[in-house]
Amino acid sequence: MKLHNQIFLAMALGALAGWLTSEGSQVFGVSLLAVYDTVGRLFINGLQMIVVPLITSAIISSLTGLGNGRDLGRLGGKTIAYYMSTTFVAIIIGLVISNLLTPGIIDGEPAGDRLGLAADTHEVLARVEGRGAGDFAGIILQLLPSNLLQAAVQGQLLGLIVFSLLFGYFLRNVEGSPGQALRDAIEGLYQTMVRITLFIIRFAPIGVFALIAATVTRTGFDAIEPLAWFFACVLLALAVHAFIVLPLAICVLGRRSPTWHLRAMTPAMLTAFSTASSAATLPLTMECVEKRSRVSKRIATFVLPLGSTVNMDGTALYECAAVLFIAQAYGLDLSLGMQALVVITALLTSIGVASIPAASLVAITLILGMVGLPAEAIGLILVTDRVLDMCRTAVNIWSDSVGAVLIARSEGEEAVLSQPPDHTV
Ligand code: ASP
């Protein structure tokens, strides 16, 4: 069976298992939920274990192979332009849908009182506030961490990426055998990481089964009900961006089939959905884009690691939709100026948000403070956060992969999606 079918099946079985399991279910005295959690965690750990060496070796080897500085400037310019413009479009879609469908207003009344705050609001807030990068200075400071290893340990990939870009850029100029030896060693490291990735991917169906089973056991399907309208609005906005805007870009700008690309990316998108972490999914994203959509290693290794932390369309859209929903639910009418502020802040914070589960909550509390709402208001949306996190993460990595395709096409790569994806992954 092909990998994406295996993962689909695992998701369905995981949802069924989660539905049949309650938080107290035990088999031979062992908690089933604990088993799901451990297996799921093992899979995520396996993927996260390779992220730091993969990102660094991929970016450095991509840069050393890029040729002259002008190539790098052109590629960097296109990449940033793509990231900024698609994120901006995503936020506007979130803004328009939230204003048109007003999910925070029920029967003409602000829905705040009916919904109530989630029970664990204070606990979540305490976690979120301790995570740092809660302001703009924090985000900018992440770009140049004083201690590289500490940034890597704390999963602040932005600093690591900037360092790798600098390293790769200057390694190109080191002449003679020291330079060549180091370039070869890093290329060897990258190829080893790719092989480890392929090995871990084989366990994706088991990991995905456990992650979905744990989420369904914990959240259940009923939990979504009170927030159904908000939930539906976010899903609609994400769907418009993922299934209309981005495919149109592949058709019009890339002149390739978005369906083929979607098929190529299915394993990565399902993994993003199950893990709710773009960083953990990165190894798979790179594999699918290179092997199945046939984007060159040169472009994939440059665009994707950067995209996994900088380009978060789904996250930015969600931040905007969540803040507007909370404002509506609190009966606060946000002026046009305020909404523009929300858009800009969502754009900037989505760059600094870590690519891990629930990371946008940090940014949302920041924006809530800016528009004059209490941080506790985030308690309104906690119940649905995990499931929507799964969806927005899939959109995040879908947008990264579309970026890789468009940039490769603009660089004249003919092989990209020139035939239906094969099934090497
Ligand atoms: N979980 C998202 C990601 O890793 C970030 C977020 O929106 O919370 O892409």
TrEMBL record:
<dbReference type="Pfam" id="PF00375">
    <property type="entry name" value="SDF"/>
</dbReference>
<dbReference type="GO" id="GO:0016020">
    <property type="term" value="C:membrane"/>
</dbReference>
<keyword id="KW-0812">Transmembrane</keyword>
<keyword id="KW-0813">Transport</keyword>
<feature type="transmembrane region" description="Helical">
    <location>
        <begin position="228"/>
        <end position="253"/>
    </location>
</feature>
<feature type="transmembrane region" description="Helical">
    <location>
        <begin position="151"/>
        <end position="171"/>
    </location>
</feature>
<feature type="transmembrane region" description="Helical">
    <location>
        <begin position="336"/>
        <end position="356"/>
    </location>
</feature>
<protein>
    <submittedName>
        <fullName>Excitatory amino acid transporter</fullName>
    </submittedName>
</protein>
<feature type="transmembrane region" description="Helical">
    <location>
        <begin position="362"/>
        <end position="383"/>
    </location>
</feature>
<dbReference type="InterPro" id="IPR050746">
    <property type="entry name" value="DAACS"/>
</dbReference>
<dbReference type="GO" id="GO:0015293">
    <property type="term" value="F:symporter activity"/>
</dbReference>
<feature type="transmembrane region" description="Helical">
    <location>
        <begin position="192"/>
        <end position="216"/>
    </location>
</feature>
<dbReference type="InterPro" id="IPR001991">
    <property type="entry name" value="Na-dicarboxylate_symporter"/>
</dbReference>
<keyword id="KW-0472">Membrane</keyword>
<keyword id="KW-1133">Transmembrane helix</keyword>
<feature type="transmembrane region" description="Helical">
    <location>
        <begin position="48"/>
        <end position="68"/>
    </location>
</feature>
<dbReference type="InterPro" id="IPR036458">
    <property type="entry name" value="Na:dicarbo_symporter_sf"/>
</dbReference>
<feature type="transmembrane region" description="Helical">
    <location>
        <begin position="80"/>
        <end position="101"/>
    </location>
</feature>
